[in-house]
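Pilot study result, target chain (221 residues):
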Amino acid sequence: MAFESFRDRKYGGRVLAERLANLAGRSDVTVLALPRGGTPVAYEVAKALHAPLDVLVVRKLGVPWNPEFAMGAIASGGERLLDDMLVRELGISTRDVEEVASNEAYELERRERVYRGGRPAPDLRGRVVILVDDGLATGSTMRVAVRAVRRQAPARVVVAAPVGAPEACELLRSEADEVVCAEMPDPFLGVGRWYLDFSQTSDEEVCRLLHNARRRSPLSD
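Predicted structure:
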């Protein structure tokens, strides 16, 4: 039967958690959400696996005249991914690239402060890290997230999303140790197409979910 849609991100997270059940109960697993939209999904995954939850903030680098069209992405820790071929084809200047990157870095730092509230980032050395988003369209933000995590010497990196474009999921297999996409519809038509409720996740909701997860986690401060 053809896949139709998830009710919302919370339901998508529950479905995804079933696909990750082999990691449940392990003491070396950390779930990292890509906020904002990945947080409600990741919360359900972390709850089902009895694993700690945190965030890895990533920001798309949009083409100057079309911010929704990604020419790259940046992640916490200074990791940056740029599609050099696309930049050349579109004639985007180095100055324009750096201006976009500077603006997004400012927003990335703001979100880090809001979501983490002064808490340090988790230590990922030797851990199995599950990176979770609500969907994978091009995979650019997830790719930079994987590279940022790799810098911290984890034991394993797992990319997970309820839904993803087949091309994006395949591309990420060369970056991550494992890619789990619960559904890979073709044609893809965008992440929002596959949720009945795809309303925007607020900063307040991200903070609330992280707070609830810390209260539940045995590794919380």
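One observation from the pilot: The longest strand covers residues 66-75. A full batch analysis is planned for the follow-on phase.
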